[in-house]
Specification:
The chain has 564 residues and is α+β, with helices and mostly antiparallel strands. Helix content is 21%, strand content 27%. Strand 6 (121-128) and strand 7 form a beta hairpin. Helix 1 (17-28) packs parallel to helix 9, helix 2 crosses helix 3 and helix 9 packs across helix 10 (405-414).
């Protein structure tokens, strides 16, 4: 056996969308990161192993941005046929080629070593089977983004599992009495349309569903992603995972048999292209932080002074019986505002001083969790936690609680993360600039853009030469688009994926130096990013943005241009 030791600033355990965004954010803010993930591919439930598309906040202009939007736009650019292998490669490269990240795939976290005096985590040990290697990761801070909260039982971090009773937090949608039940797991199936009828022969061990009444939902057509093939909420969604998987496979192959061979379901030309053998998990352990977010917080919009992320999915509370629930639809969509804020106090441990967490395992009740658990929200939580960890390291903080939340919010806003109730404040240098486009200085990165024809210059000038470290630009990536990151099925004439036609494809950034000389800082001919940050590092009389082309629209839209 081989033993390798890594000494870093932050160890992220779990490489789903939350863990991936946490690792990238921390690394880009200048600290050393180890990302330990027990699967061969990143993305968790969004990966090719599960294939759930990314859901998030509803409503015009509420789409999650930051690192998640960067990843999705890159996938649109590269993945014209919406191949899950290419999607996996996009996620992989974001971690593998980020200079401050050590990526440990196929590495299962098995042990945590803690300080007996205060519970601080000193190191974790992971096992990689295919290379027969133990990886010891020593770090100043740890972020558990594993979903199942693997560091909770390994460290003694306070956590819960199951549903709180109605009276514990006064939540009207909670069950009357507390229990250990959770939402179940789902197996996703993907279908592909062909140009001729296709037969299907089920395995002998598949269940037989003769009539539509045997299905839990009326819509079991080719237009579903089969989220309702769900089971396990009445069992232990961690230790009974294999048993749950076996039952789900019997259901899944039986459902397709029903659709193909029992009645008319419009799928004569469709084939079963893929079935997931790794169930997508919704719920298991949840950590306890200094604050527990409840149904009341969700419904009131989460107006927290320490807001660091937001949700906006309804309180989508699946019944634990899943597929076998027969008293109505298998989930209840309790209304929730979009967006609603999530506080910093819900993403670090109440009793382990250097433990962050992000994803579906944050400090929420089951009722609030039913809204916060979706991957768009989890990704934003991950970016917030990674940024907080970097601040903690740079400031010499001894615990997660010592992070300056105001500074954290400023960094997140600069990195294009919307925070409900916390508008971004433009820098003094930005406000001092003279321009014909004052809307670019209003701190609003989602509405009221400057709309210019290609080739028109957007110029900031100063009365006196000003040192500019960095210029930040936000382009319009069509946040109102009605498109998923990846499909749920493959129709015969499926359109090719493409970049948003609103996004600027080619632009120049030009400075006018103290001597009056024009200097091109950047000339990008194939841009696919909404957020642009370019180093300038010079004294300038003026700086110009020149949008030269979009991905299709005749005019260019720019939400913001800031300098610092």
């Amino acid at each position: 056996m081989r033993h390798v030791t890594h000494e870093v600033d932050l160890c992220v355990v779990g490489g789903g969308m939350a863990g991936l965004c946490a690792a990238i954010a921390a690394a880009r803010h200048g600290i050393r990161v180890a990302l330990m993930h027990d699967r061969p591919v990143l993305g968790g439930n969004a990966s090719s192993e599960v294939r759930m598309h990314i859901c998030g906040a509803r409503g015009e202009g509420n789409r999650e941005t930051g690192i998640l939007e960067e990843i999705i736009l890159e996938n649109y650019y590269r993945n014209h046929n919406m191949s899950y292998s290419i999607w996996d490669s996009v996620l992989y490269e974001k971690a593998r080629f980020e200079k401050n990240i050590t990526l440990l795939l196929n590495c299962t976290c098995q042990t945590a070593n803690t300080d007996p005096t205060d519970g601080r985590i000193l190191s974790v040990i992971g096992w990689t089977l295919n290379s027969e290697t133990y990886h010891t990761v020593k770090a100043k801070f740890f972020a558990d983004c594993s979903g199942d909260s693997i560091l909770a039982p390994l460290t003694g971090a306070e956590h819960v599992m199951g549903r709180e009773g109605r009276n514990e937090y006064g939540e009207s949608i909670a069950p009357e009495n507390a229990d250990k039940k959770t939402m179940g797991m789902s197996i996703i199936m993907m279908l592909r349309e062909t140009d001729s009828p296709q037969p299907y022969t089920p395995p002998e061990w598949a269940y037989k569903f003769q009539t539509d009444a045997d299905m839990p939902v009326a819509d079991h057509s080719v237009n579903t992603n089969f989220w309702w093939i769900e089971y396990g909420g009445t069992l232990d969604c961690i230790h009974d995972t294999d048993e749950i998987r076996d039952e789900l496979l019997k259901i899944a192959f039986g459902v397709w048999d029903h659709m193909k061979n029992c009645g008319e379901h419009g799928c004569e030309n469709w084939v079963l292209d893929w079935v997931g053998f790794l169930p997508g998990k919704r719920e298991s352990r949840r950590y306890r932080g200094p604050y527990v977010v409840t149904q009341h917080d969700v419904e009131s919009g989460g107006k927290f002074d320490d807001v660091i992320a937001y949700g906006g999915w309804p309180m989508d509370d699946h019944f634990p019986e899943g597929f076998y629930y027969r008293k109505g639809h298998p989930t209840i969509y309790h209304p929730a505002p979009s967006p609603w804020g999530i506080p910093y106090r819900a993403v670090y441990s109440v009793n382990i001083p250097n433990l962050f967490f992000a994803g579906r395992n944050i400090s929420v009740t089951h009722s609030a969790f039913s809204s916060s658990r979706v991957m768009g929200t989890c990704a934003m939580l991950g970016q917030a936690v990674g940024t907080a960890a970097a601040l903690a390291v740079h400031s010499g903080a001894g615990s997660c609680a010592e992070v300056d939340v105001g500074e954290l919010q400023t960094d997140l806003l600069w990195d294009d993360c919307m925070l409900p109730g916390k508008p971004r404040v433009p820098t003094d240098k930005t406000m001092a600039a003279k321009t014909s486009y004052p809307m670019l200085k209003d701190g609003d990165d989602r509405s009221n853009p400057a709309v210019v024809p290609p080739g028109e210059e957007i110029t900031y000038t100063w009365d006196n030469p000003t040192y500019i470290e960095e210029v930040r630009i936000v382009f319009d990536s069509d946040l109102g688009r009605n498109r998923l990151n990846m499909p749920s099925n493959y129709p015969l004439n499926m359109p090719k994926e493409h970049m948003p036609n609103t996004l600027v494809k080619e632009y120049k950034i030009v400075t006018i130096t103290e001597s009056g000389e024009e200097q091109t800082v950047a000339h990008e001919t194939n841009n696919r990013a909404r957020l642009i940050k370019k180093q300038v590092d010079m004294r300038c009389k003026a700086i110009k943005l020149v949008p030269l082309a979009t991905w299709g629209k005749p005019t260019a839209a720019v939400f913001s241009m800031d300098v610092k």
